[in-house]
Amino acid sequence: MDVNTMVFVVTCLSATSAFVLENRPVYPTPHITPPTCSKNGTIYNQGDGIPSDPCSTCSCQSGRISCIYQDCPYPDVGNQCVDPVSFASGCRRCPNGPNCRYGNLTIPYGLDVRVDEWKICRCSGGGEPTCRFSGCIYQKKFYSEGIFYPSPCERCQCDSYSNMVHCSLNKCTTEPLLCVDAIVEPGNCCHVCPNGPNCFAGNKKIPAGQDYNDGSQICRCPEPNPNLHFGSFGPQAVCKLVGPMAPPSTTNP
Length: 253
Fold this sequence. Notes:
Layout (H helix, E strand, L loop, with lengths): L2 H20 L14 E3 L2 E3 L4 E2 L5 E6 L2 E6 L15 E2 L5 E2 L5 E4 L2 E4 L3 E5 L2 E4 L7 E4 L2 E3 L2 E3 L2 E6 L2 E6 L4 E6 L28 E4 L2 E4 L4 E2 L3 E4 L17 E4 L12
Antiparallel strand pairs: 1-2, 3-4, 4-5, 6-7, 8-9, 10-11, 11-12, 13-14, 15-16, 16-17, 18-19, 20-21, 21-22
Protein name: von Willebrand factor C domain-containing protein 2-like
Keywords: Signal
Pfam families: VWC2L_2nd (PF23334)
């Protein structure tokens, strides 16, 4: 076979091949939808980010949830609280911040909390609080830290850091008591006149501002004197005789 014949054959075959390709049925390429992912009832498409814990980054890849986990911090912060949360990555976090536990009580980090009548605890991290005695002994009785009243006349304050008690007496009014039957009512410190101003006419207690006539004399309580405190034994009323015992009048008719 010479060269021209070979060229002809190749050309012919090429034309035939082109004819076959041009007349072959063409089918449309099918569209394949990537599979989705589902988490907690939510559907995620290919490549969508999926919410996860703070220690990992997740997305939907070919119908599966794919996650990249971060390295856990060192030291483990989960040791700084009593209610840590563990994630799929193995890391732990303290959702409520550092805290401590005393009995059934959770104490936030850095706060002083009274856990009972006589104890205050502080959380410094690590799960175990540091506690101290909080109160004072005064007159053989225990009092919590702060202000207290051992009697109606005393106001005291307990300093638990020094276990010292500082007290002061209540000051009563400086006004005179214008009665002879003053009392101290329950829960009060100062005397009061429950029946108002009064005085004695002999052994008879009479109200102030009124004349008392026993048939032989007329008596009246003296006018209030700011320098005079009646007390329980006085003063006596000012009296003048009447009737046959009265002194003769010096008034001219």
